[in-house]
Amino acid sequence: ILQQNDNPMQRLEFAVRTLEEFLGLPFPRRTAVLQYAGKSDSAHNIDTSILMPEDLYSTHGGPIEHEAAHWMDWGDQKWTKEGGANFLQGVILSRKQSLPLSSYVDSGSVERACEPFGIRTIKQLIDAGSKDTNFCPYTLGSYFFSLLFESMGADPFTGAWTELITTSGNNAIPEEVVYSTFLRHTPPGKVENVKGIYRQWHGGDFVR
């Protein structure tokens, strides 16, 4: 079931090492298991295991990298968890394939994923509640984080990300706290840029 020269465990190891290097945090699990999950249309991350369906083992689009990234996400909103994992998946693949991070998600992919649901901002996505919005949280969240990363710079961005991981884990985080955390880590000369990204792509009364 594997394509030639495709080793899933090597991909998982590379993903883990890249996440540690990128975020400056030790991997939060003592072990990471890649487990065959039979016939299914999606992969899952459960505790220390990634359950990977047979037909996704040799997929280079990033299911192994995405599920590994869930070990370094935060919050309990779908846009932070799935969007965050998609963003980190892009970080892993960009380093593996020597491509710019911007090549993994763009505004066009956000429009295609979110426009059918009438969603243009994260606030609208949150307001949709439990409504099925398909891949919109993945693409909108990932694109939003990539914009913050490009505007803030690597060290300030990862500083905010690791603070959110260490202070809240998978517990609920008010959107105002997420906003203030990123803003606090933003270099003075880039604060207005970050506020502009928040106004355009997130929205909400707390965004000034």
Can you walk me through this structure?
With 208 residues, this protein is mainly alpha-helical. The protein is built from nine helices and three strands, in the order αβββαααααααα. A three-stranded mixed sheet has the order 1-3-2, covered by helices on one side. The longest helix has 20 residues. The chain is globular, with a radius of gyration of 17 Å. It starts with 7 loop residues before the first helix and ends in a 7-residue tail after the last helix. The N terminus is likely disordered.
Helical content stands at: 40-55%
Instruction: Indicate the multimeric state.
Output: single chain
Sketch the topology as an H/E string, one letter per element: HEEEHHHHHHHH
* Adjacency order of strands in the biggest sheet: 1-3-2
Comma- or semicolon-separated keywords:
208 residues, mainly alpha, 53% helix
Explain briefly what this protein structure is:
With 208 residues, the chain is mainly alpha-helical. The longest helix has 20 residues, at 78-97. It has 9 helices and 3 strands; from the N terminus they run αβββαααααααα.
How is this fold's topology laid out?
Elements: H1 8-23, E1 33-36, E2 44-46, E3 49-52, H2 63-69, H3 78-97, H4 107-114, H5 122-127, H6 136-152, H7 154-168, H8 175-185, H9 191-201
Parallel strand pairs: 1-3
Antiparallel strand pairs: 2-3
